[in-house]
């Protein structure tokens, strides 16, 4: 197991380098001059423009700029935005909020998706199964912003049981409704994925063997059916955690959450490549770590899986 972890960590190095190089190239090689965008309608003097280009290494070749950027990432020095504020402060402010939001969304979609999907899979073809399939299709068909505005209206305005917008502290109680909105689409996928996996494993040979040996219904369902059905679900939940962090722009915009999505959106509008690149790079690291954790969970879910 230890050697497998080391090997996976070594495999992450070229993935990290390739992803960061691609991100840097896409952001910094797009048409336009970031210095002129920073100045706006004002006209910079040649001396001031030269100082700004030297500060952000824009007067050097692309590969040299990337190496400066990579050095800063490895030393946790993310530089400063064009507004003069350290990008590290933006990261420290925004990422904890979005991480809490994404964790809560994954918990909600995982808990309810697995429970409802397991019941639907065990009762395949019956009323509950048909109801869950129809409900999941309705959720998938609804755009996230529609679910967000409906939840904001009913929970916040009409019933008054949740805040309409989130304060700067973004406590867990304030994030419940946004997390429900953020994880609504993934909940439908988790439900259907669990339902199909449980329905398939319910008629597998190892389940019939366990039943023939006289094992109780609860043990057969929890140990044999559910445990073997969780591998694709865990894979989806792990990948979805990173996707929720990167795709929370709409939800954070609706509920005025000062997280990663809102900060990246504002940075794109203001034309601040250092902020955008730094945020996306941290998201890449999150994706890599989550995928490593998923691979390690496989051995716990299925004893047949061994890493040598």
UniProtKB/TrEMBL annotation:
Q: Give the primary localization class.
A: membrane
Cite a GO CC annotation.
plasma membrane
- All residue ranges annotated as the ABC transmembrane type-1 domain in the record: 95-298
Q: How does it sit in the membrane?
A: Multi-pass membrane protein
Q: Which CDD domains does the protein's record reference?
A: TM_PBP2
Q: What parts of the sequence cross the membrane?
A: 12-30, 97-120, 132-155, 175-193, 233-255, 275-301
Mind telling me what this protein is named? Answer: Oligopeptide transport system permease protein
Taxonomic source organism: Nocardia alba
Upper lineage is:
Bacteria, Bacillati, Actinomycetota, Actinomycetes, Mycobacteriales
